[in-house]
Amino acid sequence: MEAHHFRDSLNRELQQQARADRFYSEKMGVKNIARYNSDTEEDMVFQRQDIDLSFELNGRRLMVSEKFRNHDYGDLYLECYSKYPDTPGWMHHSKADFLACFFPERVIWLNKKMLVDFFHTKLLPAVPGAWFAKINRELHGRSGTQKHQLEFFGKTWEFTVIQAFNRSGNDQWHTIGLGIPFEMLEEFNIPGKVIMIDD
Question: Global pTM?
Answer without folding.
Answer: 0.91
